[in-house]
Amino acid sequence: MAVVARAPGRPARAAMLVVFAVFAVFLVSRGCGGPERTPGGPSSTSTGSVPGTSAVARSPFTGLPGRTGGPVLAVKIDNVGTARPHTGLGRADLVYVEQVESGLTRLLAVFSSQLPDRVGPVRSARESDLELLRQFGSPALAFSGAQSRLLPVVAEAPVYDVSPAHAPGAYVRDGSRPAPHNLYAAPDRLLAAAPDASAARDIGFRFGDAPAGGTPERDRTVRYPNGSVGLHWSAEGDRWLVSFDGDPATATDGGRLGAPTVVVQYVTVRPSGFHDRWGNTSPYSETVGTGRAVVLRDGKAYDATWSRPDAAAGTRFSTPGGQPVTFARGPVWIVLAPLPR
Q: Rg of the chain over CA atoms, in angstroms?
């Protein structure tokens, strides 16, 4: 017998409204019709992207889809010749290059999207690291130690100290290398010692298509008093290949090091109130304020300004006209370069 449809009366309409309401709740609970959810992180829409891009959960550090809300781990990395090749740097979201004593450089690698099995060689922290890391909230900070007068400053800073003094089980010495350039750490164990470390969040970077303009550039060298960072554009690899002191930078677990975007951020480098064990004054790179920068991406150099109003704020990079300078998606290296004299 055929069933003839008829217009629902008031009771039927009320029943249908209830069914639709229940169905809508079901859809929301399954994530349909809302922002994409990524395991290990909160929902997000176009994190760190320019307007008009698709609504996908992305890392605020790299602009790539994937794990977006993981805890932040910063690791201080040795960078003298005997410390190379490095281990684990190829999995860092961000790598900062900083000047230290005697005009040498040291690295601060930031991990969140992914973790290597091992990272190092790990070396000691500096005062300027604490200001730089404030924009990440309260991250975990791995370092081999610090000058005795600096340790109380680290203890008061909004970082989770996961040095060997607080996470001894995360570290191991590599007997094939000379000390002190042979201390390595397991990032998963470091984060286990800092369960409340801040999750990745917006630190001012914007990702998307290249901005208008720019000057074609193939090579650039940033010089320090006793070191250098070389950058070479690889069109085949679609990234800037990094060299230290004239030698190609490589990782024991990932080959040649590089990134789709490299920022040369010119900062004031002044003496700090601390020194190393030999009496050399530790330099302090000022990352709060404003200044000039050059953003390298897609084989071009873009003049920019950087701005960070206070230590808790992120760093924004803008064109001379005030628009955001968009980065290419992927890891970012930030070279904190001394102001030209």
A: 24
